Queue: 4 jobs
Job 1
Amino acid sequence: MEFTVQIRVTLRPSILDPQGKATHHALEQLGFEGIRSVRMGKFIALRVEARSEEEAREMAAAVCGKLLANPVMEDFEIEDAVPTVA
Amino acid sequence: MEFTVQIRVTLRPSILDPQGKATHHALEQLGFEGIRSVRMGKFIALRVEARSEEEAREMAAAVCGKLLANPVMEDFEIEDAVPTVA
C-alpha cells in the first residue's frame, strides 16, 4: 500500500539562516512592512510502499535521519502520512 | 501583535523535480527500498506584525504571491497562523 508522507525540515533556532535573512531584506525592499523575520526550511513529500501508516512514518524518519535532514543543524517533523490518493 | 505564519511552497504536479529525483536516486543508492517518489518544496516560517490572524494570513499570501512562490511553477499553502510564542 502506498503512503504519502509529508515532512518538514527546519533549521534549529540557534542556527543563522542567511537565505531567510536575504528574503526578509528583499521583502523590505519591495515595500512589505511588518515582517519581523523569515526562516526558510524544506518541505518534502515522500511516496513510500508500506504495510501501515506507522511503517510509512518509520521509513520517513529513517530517511530523514540518514539523508534529508542534517542532525547538527536541522530538525525534522513528520507532519502527516496518509494513503496516496491516485 | 506578532503572528507566526507557516507556509508550504510546492512544485506543481506537472513540473519536473530534478532535486527530488536526485534525492530519490541517492536513497536507492543508500539501500532504502520502497521509496516511490520524492518531491522537494520549501517550508517558510514568517513572523509578522498584524492585528488579527486573518490579517497575518493575508500578509503571508501577498508575500507568497510577490516573492516566495513562483506562480508559474509553484503552489503555496498557508498551513497555520498563530500568535508567536516567545
Job 2
Amino acid sequence: MEALKERIRREGRVLPGNIIKVDGFLNHRVDTAFMEELADEFARYFDVSKITMVLTAEASGIALATICANKYGVPMVFAKKAKSDNIEGGLYQSEIFSYTYKKKATLIVAQEWLGPEDKVLIIDDFMAKGYAMQGLIDIVNAAGAELVGIGVAVEKGFQHGGDSFREQGYNIHSLAVIEEATPDHITFREDDPV
Amino acid sequence: MEALKERIRREGRVLPGNIIKVDGFLNHRVDTAFMEELADEFARYFDVSKITMVLTAEASGIALATICANKYGVPMVFAKKAKSDNIEGGLYQSEIFSYTYKKKATLIVAQEWLGPEDKVLIIDDFMAKGYAMQGLIDIVNAAGAELVGIGVAVEKGFQHGGDSFREQGYNIHSLAVIEEATPDHITFREDDPV
C-alpha cells in the first residue's frame, strides 16, 4: 500500500536492534483516519462480508482492529496478555514469546466470544517473527473457528514470520513489508496483487 | 446513558470481589457500533471541537478511545504500561497501582506526542478507584497540556474514584455510574445533566 509505505518512509525511524518505530501514527499515537484507509485496503484482499469478527492481540493491535471491525460491521475481540482476575475459566490460551518485551506471555480469549461458528479475520499492526500471530492462530484453531485471513499493517519481512505463514498456506496480506531497514533507507517488498 | 445502563443490566455479570464483567461488548469483545453511541454521548458533555487529542491507557480503553478520536477528528494516544525497548528516552511517566491486576505498573507517554499546546480529552472504559485515571491526569499535567475533560463509560461509584475527581473540580462525566452491584441487581446513579 503506497500511502503506508510513504508514511513509513517519511515518519518511521530505524533504531538499533532492527526496531522500526512508527509510533507517530500506528501504535502509540494513532491516526484513526489513516487507519480507515488501511481498513479499506484490507477489504480489497479479504472478503470481509463473510467474517463474523476481527481478532487481534492487546495492546497495539486494538486501535487498527477496532477501526476495521467498525467498518466491516462485526465485533472486535482482543486477546489479552497474562491472566487478570477479571477472566475466570473457559479460556483459550496460547503461550507466546514477545519479541518487543523479550519475555513470555500468555494470550487468552474467553471461549464465550469465539466458537466453531465464527469466521475470523485476524488484524495486527506489526509482525516480526510472528510469535504473537502464531498465538492468535492457535486460539482460532482451538476454537474450531474458520480463519478467513490475516491482515498485517507493517511486516518486517527480514524476520521471516510472514513468509513462514505464507509457506504454510495462510491467506495473509501485509500492507507494507519491509525487506531492509537502515537509518538512511527502508526497502519495501512489492505489494501482493489484489 | 440509559442504553448503556440497560446493556449492563442485560449482559453484565457481578463476580465476587466487586468485579463487574461487561466483557461481551466493552472490554474483551467490543461492539464497535455501540462504542459510536457512547462517543456521541460524550460529545454532549464535552466540547470536542476544541480538543486536539484523546488520551487513554492500554489496553481496554483503546477501542472506545479509538472510536471517539475517529469521530471527533483527532489522534488517539494510549499510555503504555511498563517499559518496552521500543520507547527510548523523552517520556512522561506515572506509577499506578492496577486494581485489576493487583500490582504496580508505570504508565508512559512519549513527550513527542503530548505537549503544552494540547487540549486533552481522557477517555477510559472503566473506573474503580481511579488509580489509572490519576496516572493519566499526572501525565497531562507533566506535559503542561490542558485537560478539557474526563469521559468514562462505566464507573464503579461505590469505589469513590470518580467522586474524588469531582470534588477536585475535574470536568468528569461517566455514562453509567454503578452505586451498588449484587449478582441479582445493579443500582445506577442518575445521569449528570447535559
Job 3
Amino acid sequence: MAEEEVSNKQIILKDYVNGFPKESDMIFKTTTVKFKVPEGSNAILVKNLYLSCDPAMRFRMRKTEGSYVDSFVPGSPITGHGVAKVLDSGHPNFKKGDLVWGRSVGWEEYSLITDPETFFKIGCTNVPLSYYTGILGMPGMTAYAGFYEVCSPKEGEFIFISAASGAVGQLVGQFAKLMGCYVVGSAGTKQKIDLLKNKFGFDEAFNYKEEHDLDAALKRYFPKGIDIYFENVGGKMLDAVLLNMRLNGRIAVCGMISQYNLEQFEGIHNLVFLIIKRIRMEGFIVFDYYHLYPKFLDMVLPYIKEGKIDYVEDIVEGLESAPTALVGLFSGRNVGKQVVVVAHE
Amino acid sequence: MAEEEVSNKQIILKDYVNGFPKESDMIFKTTTVKFKVPEGSNAILVKNLYLSCDPAMRFRMRKTEGSYVDSFVPGSPITGHGVAKVLDSGHPNFKKGDLVWGRSVGWEEYSLITDPETFFKIGCTNVPLSYYTGILGMPGMTAYAGFYEVCSPKEGEFIFISAASGAVGQLVGQFAKLMGCYVVGSAGTKQKIDLLKNKFGFDEAFNYKEEHDLDAALKRYFPKGIDIYFENVGGKMLDAVLLNMRLNGRIAVCGMISQYNLEQFEGIHNLVFLIIKRIRMEGFIVFDYYHLYPKFLDMVLPYIKEGKIDYVEDIVEGLESAPTALVGLFSGRNVGKQVVVVAHE
C-alpha cells in the first residue's frame, strides 16, 4: 500500500533573531507529511490542535549554548508546547485518537513526534482542551511549582507578582489568595488591572507603565514590605522590589521578559539587600517538577470545577495567526494565556 | 566608698561617612569610666583586649534604616566584635575574670556592656585569644553557617570563593577542601595568592587585579563550571560568576565589599542565568545561626589542634592603630583577619 502524503502548512524561523522578534522573522511554507509513522519507529504522528505562545521561546530564537533548551533551527518549523491528537502511533503508550500535550509540537498542521515519552496523555476532557496549553499544562505547572515548591509560602504573607495577568501570574495570584495571602499584581494595561482585581481576586493591582517611581508604588501597596516576589519581568521592577523585601523574603525567578530582547541585560543595583534582608532568590525551570503533575491535577481540577480558580486565555484562530501572537507577547498585547488554534479537533 | 573612675581612651566616629572611609572620619578622645557597674544593673564592665575590624561595619557608618544592625552614633565610640575580660558584673552569668566575646564592644579601653546576654563566655583558652575575633568568633561562624547551612555542599563539587584570604574566605576554602571539593579562590595580591595555594591548600587561586577578563579567568579554572560560589565581593566578579555557574548551583551571599563605599551599587547584568541554570542565590547573616555555635566549636577546635585548619591574622597593636586597620579593609591592605590589640590581658 502506498503511503499517503498530505499537505502540511508550517511556520518556519528564518534566522536567529536579534532584538525584538518581528513577524517577518517567520515565514509560511507548505510541505507534505507522510500520514504514517515510519516502520519500526516508536514515534507518533499527531494533528496539532492548540499551540502555546510562551515568553521563554525567545531564548530559542537566538543561538544559545548551555541553555536548558536547544535553539530553534533556522529553516525549520518553530516548536513549542501544544495540544494534539494522535493519528498514528509506533509507541506502546499511545494509540490513534489519544489527546496529548507536550513541549515539542511543531508549528505546523501535523507533526511527527520522535520523543513521545515526553508527552502527557490527556485524561480529563470536560474542560476546554486549550487549557492544556495553560492552566493544565506547562504554565499551570510553572505556577504550581514556583509558588508551592520555590516560594515556601505561608498564610498571611505579602505576595507581589509581576506580569500578573499572564499565563502563570494569574494562577500564582489565585493560589496565593486561596492560601490566605495578601496579593498585589502589576501589569501594563487598565484592562489587565481590572482583570486582576475583579476576576482573579487580587487585593490590589497597579499599572507599572503609569508609575514613575516603582519603589514608591510598591511602598504604597506594601507598607510593611514584601514576603514573596514572583518574578516574571526582571529589570527595573526587580530593583525596586529588592528595596522593599522583608526579612527572610523569597524571590522565585520564573522569568525576566523585560530583558529577553535586549542586547545586554539591564543592571540590577540592589542585590546587597539579599544580605541585609536574608533573601533567598531562586531560579527554577518547570521541567524539573513534571513528576508532580498528577498531584497538581488532583489539586487544580476540583478548583476549576468548583469555580474557585478562573483562567483567562487570549485565543487566536489559525496557524497563520501564530507569528503575530508570539511577537505580541513581548509588547504585552495578549490578555491572559496566548493560545493559537490550529484545529478544533 | 567613692566610685573609682579611670581614664578611657576611645575612638569616636565624627559623622556619617560617604564614599571610602578615611582615618580622619574617626577621632581619639579620652574620657573617664566608672570602674563598677551601676547599682542594680545587670550590665558588665569589661576591659577590651582584641577588637575586630569587619567589612560589615561599613554599613553602620552610614545612616541606615531597616538594616540588620543599627548605625553608629556620630560622636560616640565605634562598636564592633571583640574579646574582653570582665572586671565587674551585675549579671548572674558573668563574674569578674571571665573572658567573653561578643558583637557590641566599644572601640575603647573599657566598656560598660548593657546587653551581656548577647556575649559568649570563652571556655577554651589554649588557643590565641584573638581567635575569638576570627576563626572562633563571628567570621568563623559566618564561614561555617554560610558553607554548611547555605551552600548545601557535596563532596567533589567545584567551589569558588572571592576575597578568599580574608577572615571568612580562608575558612570556607579549608572547610571545602576537608569535604573533598575542588576549591579556587580569588584575592588581590601575590602574597594572598601564595597563602591560598601554599598555606590553605586551595587547588588554585588567582589575582583578580591581574585578570582583564574575569569570565575568561573563571573558565580557565572551572572548565566545567562552578557549583558553589561563596560571594564576598559583589560587582563585576558576581556578573562573571553568573556566566559560569553549573546547573542547580548555589551562591551564598555573605558580603559585597566592592560595593560598600559606592554611592550607587554597580549593576549586575547576568541574573537571567538564575533561571537558565536553576541557581539559588541566598543572602545570610551570621546572627541567625549563633545557636549552632557549640556545634561549630565541637567541629573546629579539634581541627585547629590537629593542625588541619590554619588561620592567618593581621594583628596591629594599640587602640590608636584601629582607624588605619579598619580603613585598610576596603583597599585590601590586610592579609587575613584584621585584629587590633587593645591590651593583651
Job 4
Amino acid sequence: MPDQMQRIVLASRPEGQASEENFRLESVDMPQPEEGEVLVRVHYMSLDPYMRGRMNAGKSYADPVEIGETMTAGGVGEVIASNSPDFQPGDFALGAFGWASHACAQGSDIRKLDPDMAPLTTALGVLGMPGFTAWHGLDAYGRPQAGETLVVAAATGPVGSMVGQLAKQKGLRVVGIAGGADKCKLAVETFGFDACLDHRAYASAEGLKEALAAECPDGIDIYYENVGGKVLEAVLPLMNNFGRIPVCGMIAWYNSAETDLTAPAIWRSVLTKFLSVNGFIIFNHYDRYGDFLGEVGPGIASGDIKYLEDIAEGLENAPRTFLSMMQGGNTGKQIVKLV
Amino acid sequence: MPDQMQRIVLASRPEGQASEENFRLESVDMPQPEEGEVLVRVHYMSLDPYMRGRMNAGKSYADPVEIGETMTAGGVGEVIASNSPDFQPGDFALGAFGWASHACAQGSDIRKLDPDMAPLTTALGVLGMPGFTAWHGLDAYGRPQAGETLVVAAATGPVGSMVGQLAKQKGLRVVGIAGGADKCKLAVETFGFDACLDHRAYASAEGLKEALAAECPDGIDIYYENVGGKVLEAVLPLMNNFGRIPVCGMIAWYNSAETDLTAPAIWRSVLTKFLSVNGFIIFNHYDRYGDFLGEVGPGIASGDIKYLEDIAEGLENAPRTFLSMMQGGNTGKQIVKLV
C-alpha cells in the first residue's frame, strides 16, 4: 500500500464562472481506518452539476465545501483495509469518497456493490443518484398520465434520458432539449424521445418557445426542471392548466443569475395555470430506493432502458472534466476512472 | 317593475394603476328572463381583488371582461321574476350577477340562499368564495401541522383572517401582515393571530424580513400567498425546508410588476428548501364546498370564527370602493349594498 494518497481540494471560491484555478491537486498521507471504518481505493468517481453549488459560500441545501477541503463526490471504491465487520478487502462499495484516490468511511455509511449484478459504474448513474432522481421526481411530483406531454432538458444526461424513457413507457409525448444536433439525434434514436430541440439553435427564449410550441401541440403538462434559464422562460407560457414542475436543478443559473425571466412572471404562471411546483433533492428520499430498483432495475438488465456513460481518466483531469460538463461537454453520465 | 336597470361596464383598460375612468355607469333596458331563467334584483355585490385581472386584455385564468361589457362580480339577489321551476319571486340566490342592479341568470347557475340560516352577506365572504378559498388552500396545499408556523398577509381580509383562524385551531403559530397599526391590532385581538406586522412600517423587504424573523423564531413552514411583492421577498429566505406555499393571489403585482425579487431567487428557494408551491383558484374546487360548509359553518354559527365585513352603499360607488380596496382601504370583506 502506498503511503500517500491524492485528492483535489477547493482552492478558492469561483466568482461567477468556475475555473481550474478554483481546484488544487494534493498528495497527503494515506489515512488509517478507525474502528468500524474501511479504507477504499476509489475506482470511479462521479461528477454532477450539484457540485457547483458546494463551491459557493453559504448554505444551499448542503453545507459548502470549505477552502482547502476535499471536493465532494460519490464514488465506487474497492475495500483495501477494513475495521468493519461488514466489509472485507476486495469488496466494492458505493460511498461519498470525494475527489480522491482513497478514502476512509464508516461501514454503515457505504453500500456494498455486487460487480456481477451490474457494471460498477451504473451505481453512479442509471442505478444510482441520477437515475433515482429521475424516477422519484417524475413519479412523486410529475404524476404522469398517458396522453400528456412532458418536456425535459439535458435530454441525453443521466437524469433527462431516464425521465424521458420512463415517461415514454407511461404513454406520454416526450420532447427533449439538448445542446447540439448530435445530442438531439441521440435523444430521439437511442432514448426514444418523440422530438428533441437544440437550444443552441435559438438565440432567444422566444424562438425556443415557438419551436417547442410546434412540438407540443397540446401544450406541456409536465416540465421536469433541471436547467432553469432560457428553457424555463420558453416553457412557462406553454404550460397547461394543472401542470406539474418537479425542480431538481437549475444548472443554467449555477454560474450566473442573468435572465430575462422575472419573479412576477413565474408567480403569475403558477397562479393562473394552477401549477404544482416541487423542489427536491434525492438525498431526502432514500426510503424509496428499493422501489426504484424494483421498478427500473429489470428494464436496465433487459436493455429496455438505455443509458450512456462518458468516462474520463485520471483524478488530475477531474476539474477540467467537471468544468466541461457544466458547459454540456459530456455525453451521458460523467464519470472519472481512477484505476 | 322599472323598465331600466343600472350597470357598470369596463370603459377602458388600465395602464398600470386602475382608475375611475376605466369604469362607466349605464342605464339599459330591463332584461326579460328566458326559459329556465330568473330575473333578480341585486341586494349585495362582492368586490374582490381578482377583478383587477379581468380588466386586463389577455387571458389570465379567466377570459378578460371586454370593453363595454358589465364588470364581473358575485352577488346576492332577490328573484323578482322566474321562468325556472326551482325559483319563485321572493327567493334569494347567489350568482354571478355582475356590477349591476339587476340580472338574468339560468336557475341552474345560481344557488338558493336561506336568509334565516345566516346573514345574506356571508354568502359573499366568510361562507362564500373567500372563506372557501382560505379553507381549501390551507387544507389541500398548506397541509398544516400543529407546532408549525404560518404567515399570511392581508390578515384582516376575508381570506387572511380565515386562514389565520383555521391555522390557530390546528395549533400553529400564526403571524399576519397587514397595512396599518389598526389592522394589526384587529388581527391579534379579533382574529387571534399570535402577532401581526404592519408592512407600511418597513420601507424595504429586508426590514420586513428581520421583523418577521423575530416573530418566527422557528422559521416559516407555510406561507399562504395572496400578495406577492415585498412580502414574498421577505418571506422566502425564512421558509423552512419542506415548506408549503399555496398561491391564491398576488395583489401587490396586479397593478405593477416592479420588484427586487428575481426569478432565479424564487427557483433557488424552491430547489434548496424543497418547497411545494401550488397555484389554485377556488372555482375549480367546488366539489369540496360541502366539506367546507360542514367543517367551518358550525364555528361561524357559534361565533368561534370571527369575520368582518366592510359594506359600501350604492352601485355608483363601486368603482371608487374597488380602487380603494386594491390599496387596502377596506377593513374586512368588501361588499356593496345596492338595496
